[in-house]
What does this fold into?
Amino acid sequence: MRTLIVSGGRIDPDFALPFCQNNEFEQIIGVDGGLDFLHRYEIMPTHIVGDFDSAEPGLEEYYHSWKEVEIRRFDPVKDSTDTQIAIELALELRSDSVTILGGTGSRLDHVLGNIQSMMLARAAGVDCEMVDANNRIRLIEEETILKKDQQYGRFVSLLPLTTLVEGVDLIGFKYPLCNHTFTSTGSAGLGVSNEIVADEAKIRMKSGVLILIESLD
It folds into this structure.
């Protein structure tokens, strides 16, 4: 089952609307400010979650009139972010894959928090991606193949999420690596702004978790 989470970050309608139309999702979870986008473009969620402090006034009450929409309201003073709560709900619903729209934007603390929250899905063995008009972000801990004719953007960047990511091989890239160790203390330069030069590129590692970012610019 594919689940779409629409969070309250920056959403470009010119990207997000075709993305929603071209992909089928069995569950759509609206998260706080993300409800503004869903309501404006008449996309009906199956669930809404959050403290609703950043949603347009009246939207929570509007969705109460739709019995098929499950509403989970949380106190603003809580130990989890709204996006984290949505990911936990997606896992509770037994999702096979999770896609997050509106997880990026001007609040870098929210972006980093959302990337860390994606580890909940990774730990459960569920594919999870965060997308916007310029980027696709995933967490990987096993061999990953990127096909050049299917890549999300021109640039491929790899950053360590765990303290160490050991035994990294990059094959089919402009800047290959062999048995490299990424650390959280200053080795980012070797992983940023790489490019695929073969028909397909392979990322291999022996241990750890990498943040994989495919960027258009």
In short: The mean pLDDT is 91. DSSP finds five helices and 14 strands in the chain.
